[in-house]
Amino acid sequence: MAKKSSSKATSTGNTPAVPAGEVTYAELLARGTNIDALIVEHVTAQGPAGLLGLADAVNTFGVLADTHEAMAVVRACETLKSVVTAQQAQHTTCYQDSLISYRRDLGVREKNPGWGSNADIALAMHVSRHRGAQTSNEYRILVEDLPRTIQGMRNGEVTWEQVKVIISGIRHLSVDSRRMIDQLLWEETHNCFTAGTAKLREMVTYWALILEPAVEEDLEAKAEKDRHLDIYQIDKYSVRISGTAPLEQGIALRQVLARKVEEARDNPDDERNASQIGIDSVYEEMTGLKAGGSIPVQLLVVMDHATLGGGSDNPVLLPGSGYISAAKGRKLLAGDPQDPVQTWWRRLFVAPTTGELVAMDSKSRRFGGNLKRFISFRDQYCRTPYCNGAIRDMDHVVQVRKNGKTTAANASARCASCNQNKEAPGWVETPVPGDRHSFKIITPSGHSHIAKAPPLLGINTPAKVTPPLSRRPGPQRE
C-alpha cells in the first residue's frame, strides 16, 4: 500500500490536484511502485465501486488530437468493452445460479426457481424485460459452452458483436457440438475473426451442418408450423408488417398482389407505385375499407382544448403509440368528408402544472370502464422502467391479497411478462406519493427502481429549455 506524504496538494498534467498529506502519482513512480498492479488491487478490493471508479477515470481521459494516438484509444476502448462484457456475462449467470440455488434450498418456486431474474437483469442493464432475457440467455451460452471464446473476450481478441454471430449459429445445437465449434473457431488454420462477421457466420453454419446435419428434419412442416404475421410500430409515423409463410402461400400472395398492380396500372389517373398498391390492397382485403378512408374503430386521441380548436399546435397523444402533430390529430377527429363517420369525444381532465391525469377510484377488484381508460391514457406504455412494451394488463401495484385498493393511485399498466414478473418471490412494489404517479420496485436482488408515469407533453406548463453546453476537448469540470 502507498504511504502518505507530507507534500502539499499538487497537480500533474490532466491529473486532478492531490490533497495535502496524500502521495502523488509522480511520487509513486519515483518509488518504483507498480501502478498497474496497484490499480488492479484497488478495483478488486472495492468491487462494484471500484468499477465505477474506473469509469470515472475513463471519463476524465482527455480527447487526443494526434491521429495515431486517437486510433490507439479507439482500439483500447474496444478491448475494454469486450473485457467488461465478459465480466458482465459471468456475473449475470452467477446471479441467476445463486438465486436458483437459494430458492431451491427454501423450496420456493421449485418448478421455475429463476422466475423474475431476467426482469431484475433487464432493470440493471436499462433495457426491456424481453431484451434482458435475450441477453442473459446469450450470456449463459457464452459462459457455459464457449470457454475459449469468453477467454478471447477477456483478452480483447473478439468483440461482443462477433460472439452474438457465433451464438446465433449454435444455440440449436447440443452442448458437445457447441464446445466443438468453440474449439474449431480458435484453430490457427483460419482467420474467421478477422475476415468479417459474414465469413464468421458462414463458417459456424458450415460446422453446425457437419456436426448435426438436419437431414431428418421436415423443413416443409417446420415452415408450416412457424408461419406468422407481426405488426409493430417502428416510429411515430408508421408501422411495419412482417412475417413468414409456407412457399405455396407466399407464391399465391405474390401472384394476387401482382394482379392488383396490373389492374391499377390500367387506370391512368392512379399515381401509386407497386409497393403502395400492394399495401393498399392488403389493407382493403383485410378490413373491407377503402385505403385512405375513415376507420370505424375506437382511436384514442388526447389533446388540449386549444389544440382541438386550432389555437395551439401542441403535439397530440395516441396512447400506446406516441405523439403526432396537431394537424394530424385534428384531421383524425374531423374524419373523411367523402366518407363521414360519427365522431365521439371523451373529455379527460389533467393538472395544469404537472400534466398528471386527475385520479379516479373503483369499488371493483378489476380495472374497467373509465378507470381502465384513464390508466391507459396516464401510463401510455408498460410502466416497468426501460420496457415501453404495449399495455396488456391493468393491475394493482400492491396486490389485493395484501390489501391493495382498486384505485388509480394503486394501479399500473404493464405488458404481459412484466405483470407476471411482479409476482416473483422477492419482488415488491409500493406507491410513492408525489405530483406524478410513481411507484417503487424492489427486485429479488435487493435493488430498487422508481417507475414514474410519463407527462402528457404540451398539456402541462412548458418547462424552460436549457441549451446544451458546447463541446470542448478534454474533461469538463464545474
TrEMBL record:
<protein>
    <submittedName>
        <fullName>DUF222 domain-containing protein</fullName>
    </submittedName>
</protein>
<feature type="region of interest" description="Disordered">
    <location>
        <begin position="457"/>
        <end position="478"/>
    </location>
</feature>
<dbReference type="InterPro" id="IPR003615">
    <property type="entry name" value="HNH_nuc"/>
</dbReference>
<feature type="domain" description="HNH nuclease">
    <location>
        <begin position="370"/>
        <end position="420"/>
    </location>
</feature>
<dbReference type="Pfam" id="PF02720">
    <property type="entry name" value="DUF222"/>
</dbReference>
<dbReference type="InterPro" id="IPR003870">
    <property type="entry name" value="DUF222"/>
</dbReference>
